[in-house]
Prior knowledge:
Blueprint: H1 9-30, H2 32-40, H3 47-77, H4 79-100, H5 106-121, E1 136-139, E2 144-149, E3 153-157, E4 166-169, H6 178-182, H7 184-188, E5 198-202, H8 208-216, E6 221-225, H9 229-238, E7 247-248, H10 252-258, E8 263-268, H11 283-291, E9 293-303, H12 313-322, E10 327-332, E11 339-344, H13 349-357, H14 363-375, E12 377-378, H15 393-428
Parallel strand pairs: 5-6, 5-8, 6-7, 8-9
Antiparallel strand pairs: 1-2, 2-3, 3-4, 9-11, 10-11, 10-12
Amino acid sequence: MIFSVNSNFLIWAAFAACMIIFVFPLFLLGTVTPSLVKYTVDSLEDSGKIVGMLNASNTIGSILGTFLPTFVTIPTVGTSVTFLIFAAILLALAVIYFVSSREKSVKAVVGCILFVVCCIFGSSDSFAFWEQDLTYEGESVYNYLQVREDDQNVILSTNVLFGVQSIYKKNGALTGMYYDYALAAPYMAGVREKDRLDVLILGMGTGTFATQCKKYFPNMNMEGVEIDEDITALAVEYFHLPEDVPVTTYDGRAYLNAVDEKYDVIMVDAYQDITIPFQMSSLEFFTLVKEHLRDDGIMVVNMNMRGREEGNINQYLADTIAQVFSEVYTVDVTGSTNRELFASNNPDMRKVFEQNTALEEDDGLSAMMQRVGEHLTVYESGGYLMTDDQAPVELLGMRVIDDLIADEVKYYKELYRQEGLQGLLDTLL
């Protein structure tokens, strides 16, 4: 069969990619130390000293190779140039050796030629080479960043192929996405009953939720936490993040550990690309969130992948949250794989929501909240649990993505079955 996708597709794909890309270079690097020992040891008397120096140099190189790309070269010049920089260092060491030993090596010359070719053709700073007229493309310490713009929207994506992490509507309208559903949280916390709500957003992104809250609830006191300062810079430059919304560059969980404030609403929307950080998916983390909420406070969590199988990532997340909060409601976002979860220890949270939304005078927002209310469902826990000791979010997320890939491939498999290879090629081309 021309297409085959099983439940472990991404795992096998990642394994195959690593084997193809990394195994041969690592194999060659593994031969460096034994080769140096062969060429540098002249007698058994100094062999221990030389081998020890080589191992020490190898260790120092490993440390530098770990930290320099992460904190220096990738944030400064990007991934492709980082590869070229370290390739140049290794090549330079080889050339120095051959020159100092007065040996001629055709391999060194060939290596230099190949390096020049790679510098000319292999240093493109664009990963999405098929995209045209991107407003911004770059890399940060944590993410690939892409901003694209049209007449109506400005969109941030942190994935080369798909995904919308943040969106700004130029006309100020609702987005039609999960951010709109999350606006139910202030109503549940009693926005019409208090002069001011304190809201914390963990995973600020470019501030779509904050911008909407500022428009519809101008009396809110909001602050955000975003680990990627480059995203915060894009939020200011392209997404019109309100100037009076402070953003702290920090990990969301570490931030909660560092502050004592309590909030009416805490939104959890932290993702590394499309994967939830494990430290922000555990029982201990959600307990920490509860400790920073007022008695009638609301936590809203964006869950961006809906799995079909029993024991999927959303079940694990929701069940873990249900261990901490007595009231848990979910609502699926129309036309999306996202699901919004609302949690509180206030048994009247839904009643408060209905009372406050009935007073909303904005027609668009009122219609949106009516849609949320109609589909708001009490969540029944199934007993799944994630803890700091065991939170396999990457594996659970891969299973959901496997399902999405299988759904996409299903169409082409059926087309191949009905029309054969030529019909499939005509469709693809």
